[in-house]
Structure formats: C-alpha cells, structure tokens
Structure to design on (181 residues):
C-alpha cells in the first residue's frame, strides 16, 4: 500500500532495538503488519506498544459486535477527519459484509443507516451524540447501558477514545494512501 505522510515514518534501517521489538510484536499480532498511525507511533515505542495493545483488545477482544466496532470507528474517523482511518475501515466493513455501500454513505454524512439492528442504532446514536458535544443525557445513557451493559459502555467509550488517538495522528500527518487497502 502506497502511503504518504507529512510526518516522516521511522527509518527502518535506523530503528532502535525497542522500535524494532515493538514493530515485530505488532506485525505478529492480529493486524498482520504495522500501518498508518501505528507506524508513526513507532517514533515512541513505549507509547506504540501500549496503544496497539489497547487497540488489539478493542478490535479483537471486545464484547461489542464487529458491526458496532466498525460503525463506531467510522463515525469517529469522520469526526476527526481521518481519511486514512475512514478509507481503511470502510473497505474492511464492506469486504467483511458488515455494512452495505448505502450504510457507508449514510455514515459518511453522519446519518444512522436503516440496516443497523436496534441495538446498533442505539449505540450509533450514542456515539454521534458523544462526538457532537460530549454531552449524554441520562435517558440516552440508560438506553445504551440497557443494550450493552456498563462493561460494554466502557469498551465503547475506550473505542471512541482509541480512534481519536489514531484519527488525530492520521489527520495531522495527512496520511494518504492508494485504494488498495
């Protein structure tokens, strides 16, 4: 995948032992490689290691459904204007048949797709409200907790926070890549 960035990626030939160790740990995990914001995070291997570990739990060890995870990621990428994250995860959601092209179009405009389940719609509405103004009313909070429980709520909030990290890194770096995700 051809990627350009306004922040230089760490030079593979000049990486420290810590950078190489963390890069290799990430590559051996479920991601299968080191891409985008995580690649930039290798400038600070201690942070990269911890951030990627959180992301691994939130993507592959969460109680939230795959569709909920991808909808949340896409809404957060839209909010942070992280084109790289949006492109990568919209392609992933389409490839894994999690979201239709119509649903992706709705999400790109901040709309909740009709095809989502009731549970997913409640969660997406919560995420949109959170991203819009960080204020969640008692009724909306109770509704989300009713659907995913308090542990699920914490996972959801951490997922939004995690993708703010990656989204802001991608946006500030101006990460761009070709269409072959």
């Amino acid at each position: 995948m051809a990627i350009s960035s306004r922040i230089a990626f760490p030079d593979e030939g000049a990486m420290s032992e810590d950078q190489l160790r963390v890069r290799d740990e990430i590559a051996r995990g479920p991601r299968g490689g080191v891409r985008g914001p995580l690649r930039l995070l290798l400038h600070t291997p201690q942070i990269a290691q911890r951030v990627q570990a959180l992301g691994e739990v939130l993507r592959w060890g969460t109680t939230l459904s795959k569709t909920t995870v991808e909808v949340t990621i896409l809404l957060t990428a839209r909010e942070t204007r992280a084109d790289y994250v949006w492109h990568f995860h919209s392609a992933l959601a389409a490839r894994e048949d999690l979201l239709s092209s119509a649903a992706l179009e709705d999400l790109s405009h901040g709309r909740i797709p009709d095809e989502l389940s009731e549970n997913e719609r409640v969660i997406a509405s919560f995420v949109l409200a959170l991203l819009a103004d960080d204020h969640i009313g008692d009724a909306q909070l109770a509704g989300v907790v009713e659907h995913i429980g308090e542990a699920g709520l914490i996972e959801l909030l951490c997922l939004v926070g995690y993708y703010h990290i990656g989204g802001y890194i991608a946006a500030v770096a101006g990460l761009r890549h070709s269409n072959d995700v």
User: Anything to note?
Assistant: The CA atoms of residues 5 and 174 lie 5 Å apart.
